[in-house]
Amino acid sequence: MGIEVGGLLGLIWLIILVWAIVKVAKSSAGGVAKLLWILALLFFPLVGLIAWLLLGPKG
């Protein structure tokens, strides 16, 4: 049972991460800012997502 729960949580996390990357890509931020946010989300998923939610572009 533990593997199924872990797999489901991993899938949910992947969906949230992809959603955040799409939101960054569609934002009104400049190209360099978008690139830095996407790299932060890819290399530091948890910290990058929290930072983006708190500090990222709102548009």
From TrEMBL:
The keyword rRNA processing does not apply. It is found in: Cell membrane. InterPro entries: CLS_N. Residues 15-57 form the Cardiolipin synthase N-terminal domain. Keywords: Cell membrane, Membrane, Transmembrane, Transmembrane helix. The chain crosses the membrane at residues 6-24, 36-55. Its main location: membrane. The keyword Transmembrane applies. GO terms for cellular component: plasma membrane. It is a multi-pass membrane protein. This is Cardiolipin synthase N-terminal domain-containing protein. It comes from Vreelandella populi.
